[in-house]
Structures are given as structure tokens and as C-alpha cells.
Write a structure and sequence with these properties.
Radius of gyration: 16 Å
Largest sheet: 2 strands, antiparallel
CATH class: Mainly Alpha
Number of domains: 1
Helix content: 55-70%
Number of helices: 8
CATH topology: Arp2/3 complex 21 kDa subunit ARPC3
Structural class: mainly alpha
Strand content: under 5%
Length: 176
């Protein structure tokens, strides 16, 4: 990797960490901007660099830096929401592979939606497993959907729209 790619990966890892502390309350749940910065990494960087940025973010959190919404450390693996974090590198990679042309807002939106599906495909079963096996809280598919996905769909749609609106402008102004 070139130094520029490494710097961009570090930048998006830092932005994702900052996004975990930008909280928007949604009643019982809280939305953060982590996934927005994951999507932006996927759109603005190549797929490999985008995935690296998110892998660095997740690794730093699991190593103990308090970059996740509720802190950090290896014990975070027992948090019901950790599966969503573990999916971030794969989501960034998928978005990066699909959003090849950064100027088409429609393509960016569809790419981001696919990446968000990756996050849910990993995060929801992980949530169910941690709740059912470790926490002793029985959760069926409906409960997992209600707790881990439903409250976030509107916010995710807004993140996708924002990413599709701003990334073409950012890409025009900077050479990534």
C-alpha cells in the first residue's frame, strides 16, 4: 500500500471512532454515525483500503481503546451489538466493490444499501446468539428484528442518502 492509502485508512478509522460518539437518541435505541463513515470509506476509498480502515477501527476497540459506543476491550465480544462492529470491514469492502463510479448517486445508494445488509446479516444473528447463549435473554427472530434493526432503518436510509449526496462532491474536490 502507498502512504496515501494508509493515511486515508487511518483517517476513516478515526472518523468511524468519532462517529461512535455522535449519538442520536431514537427512544429506546441510539443511532450513531459509525455506519455513515464506514459507507463513506467504501465509496471514497478502494475496497481494500476501506476494509482496512474499518478493520483497524475494530481492532483498536477490541484491543482496549475506548472507541466503541460503550468503551472497548476484548470483553466487548460479549456485547449483543458487537456483531454489527465485526461486520464493518466486510461492509466497507462490499460498498467499495460496488460503488466503482463515485459520481452516480444511485449506484452509491445501492452500494451502501448492500453494505448495510452485510452489517445486518452478521449483526442480527450475533445479537441473537449473545442474548440467547450468554445473557440468557431468549430472543426470537421478531425480537431481534425489533431490537437490532427496526429502530435503525430510517436512520440508515438517511445515512445512505447523505452519503450519496456528499461523496460525489467530496470525490470531485479531493484526489483519493
Amino acid at each position: 500500500m502507498r502512504a496515501k492509502e494508509l493515511c486515508m485508512a487511518a483517517l476513516f478509522a478515526a472518523l468511524t471512532a468519532a462517529g461512535s460518539f455522535i449519538r442520536i437518541p431514537l427512544g429506546v435505541s441510539t443511532m450513531t454515525l459509525q455506519l455513515l463513515f464506514t459507507a463513506m470509506a467504501g465509496v471514497l476509498l478502494d475496497a481494500r483500503t476501506a476494509a482496512l480502515s474499518q478493520a483497524v477501527y475494530v481492532a483498536l476497540g477490541l484491543l482496549g481503546l475506548p472507541v466503541f459506543t460503550k468503551g472497548g476491550g476484548i470483553g466487548y465480544l460479549l456485547e449483543p451489538t458487537c456483531g454489527f462492529l465485526l461486520a464493518l470491514p466486510a461492509a466497507a469492502y462490499v460498498i467499495g466493490r460496488l460503488a466503482k463510479k463515485r459520481t452516480s448517486r444511485g449506484r452509491i445508494a445501492l452500494s451502501c444499501a448492500a453494505g448495510f445488509c452485510v452489517v445486518y446479516a452478521v449483526g442480527l444473528p450475533y445479537m441473537a446468539a449473545v442474548c440467547n447463549l450468554y445473557l440468557g435473554q431468549a430472543m426470537d427472530a421478531r425480537a431481534v428484528f425489533a431490537a437490532g434493526m427496526a429502530p435503525f432503518l430510517l436512520g440508515d436510509a438517511l445515512k445512505i442518502a447523505l452519503c450519496a449526496a456528499v461523496c460525489p462532491q467530496i470525490a470531485k474536490r479531493i484526489q483519493i
